[in-house]
Write a structure and sequence with these properties.
RNA binding, 2 domains, Arc Repressor Mutant, subunit A, five-stranded antiparallel sheet, disordered N terminus, PAS, Beta-Lactamase, alpha+beta, ANTAR, WH-like_DNA-bd_sf
Length: 217
């Protein structure tokens, strides 16, 4: 098992008896989806059988009326990173009801700079046995740790520079891109620096060094 949330996402390969998993990408500016072949199979399709769309996703949730609006909100919160860990119930193409965990990688930035959400869907419907459940729980734990570090760093930056949380997150993403490191790694450095500073000391010079990719002395 990999030791980071990013590695857990990109290298997840279900072992015999483990939960099924598939990866997705969502491009919000185009409302365009990409599903991996394992995800298509999880939804009950053969590779290349369908083109994934938001409408198709809503159909799998059997979302109409009020449920449709709620499902669209849940999707938006997931892909934006606001609610990156969700448990959902859907039906596959054969009508089988499935319980799935949706994990969105808030620490990943597309190297091309195109806005895109990356995530993985875990089918936990038929998970039995302590080992398989532990695998799923470990994935969630890794993502929760990543999310916690980023939220802490956003708060530290927002307070230190008197900016909004959105502006703070934009600073993290910008530093991540400039330094070619994960957002989570920048966030963890921000938290560590803030914790090491004596009370009453202006944190901005030390935070500036981290955000600029310079190791603090």
């Amino acid at each position: 098992m990999n030791g980071s949330a990013d590695a857990a996402l990109s290298t997840w390969v279900p072992s015999p008896g483990a939960v099924a998993a598939g990866e997705f990408r969502y491009y919000p500016e185009e409302d365009r989806w990409w599903w991996s072949d394992p995800l298509l199979e999880l939804f009950g399709y053969s590779p290349g059988e369908v083109v994934p769309t938001t409408e198709l996703l809503l159909w799998h949730h059997r979302a109409t009326g009020k449920d449709r609006a709620q499902t669209l909100t849940a999707i938006a919160r997931a892909v934006s990173g606001e609610a990156p860990v969700q448990v959902q119930v859907m039906r596959d193409a054969r009508g089988r009801e499935c319980a799935v965990i949706v994990l969105v990688d808030v620490a990943w930035t597309d190297p091309t700079g195109v806005p895109v959400a990356r995530g993985v869907v875990l089918d936990v419907t038929s998970v039995v046995g302590v080992g398989a459940r532990a695998q799923a729980n470990e994935q969630i734990g890794l993502w929760a740790q990543s999310r916690a570090a980023i939220e802490q760093a956003k708060g530290i930056i927002a307070l230190a520079y008197r900016v909004t949380p959105d502006a703070a997150f934009a600073s993290l993403r910008r530093s991540s891109s400039l330094a070619n490191v994960k957002v989570r790694d920048i966030a963890e450095s921000i938290v560590a620096v803030a914790q090491d500073l004596p009370a009453g000391v202006d944190p901005r010079p030390a935070l500036d060094r981290v955000l600029a990719g310079v190791q603090a002395a």
